[in-house]
Design goal:
It is built from six helices and five strands. By secondary structure, it is of the alpha/beta class. It has a single domain, classed as DsrEFH-like (Hypothetical Protein Ychn, Chain: A). It has a five-stranded parallel sheet with strand order 4-3-2-1-5, sandwiched between helices. Strand 1, helix 1 and strand 2 form a beta-alpha-beta unit. The two termini are 21 Å apart. The relative contact order is 0.22. This is DsrE family protein. It comes from Mariniplasma anaerobium.
Length: 113
């Protein structure tokens, strides 16, 4: 992993927080070069929010188009019934327990929203 990489664990399903903090910040961080790479990890209720809220969906697509890496928890997406839709958007789904543990134990920048 790159030392100048930001990892954001997105667990907050509130559309206002998601739009006006998480997506606004990550899009700007990638676009303006604040980090070499920005990664969003979708975990829990935001998986459903992305599918149900068109504005959030548009912003996620915008983020991905400028190079933000968006991945998600496969288990969560399956439990919420949105795994196929997220994969169709290009969001890579996988079991995230081990990768998240490695981020936490490693020397990586990780914020949770």
């Amino acid at each position: 992993m790159n030392k100048n990489e930001l990892n954001v664990l997105w667990t907050n399903g509130d559309p206002i927080t998601s739009e006006h903090f998480l997506l606004l910040y990550t899009i700007n961080a990638q676009k303006r070069g604040w980090f070499d790479q920005v990664n969003i990890i979708v975990w829990g209720s935001p998986a459903k929010l992305i599918i149900e809220n068109k504005r959030i969906q548009e912003l996620v697509k915008e983020a991905m188009a400028i190079g933000v890496n968006v991945s998600g928890c496969l288990h969560c997406a399956q439990e919420l019934g949105v795994d196929k839709e997220l994969e169709a958007m290009g969001i890579k789904l996988e079991y995230k327990g081990i990768p998240l543990t490695e981020l936490i134990k490693g020397d990586h920048k990780l914020i949770t929203i």
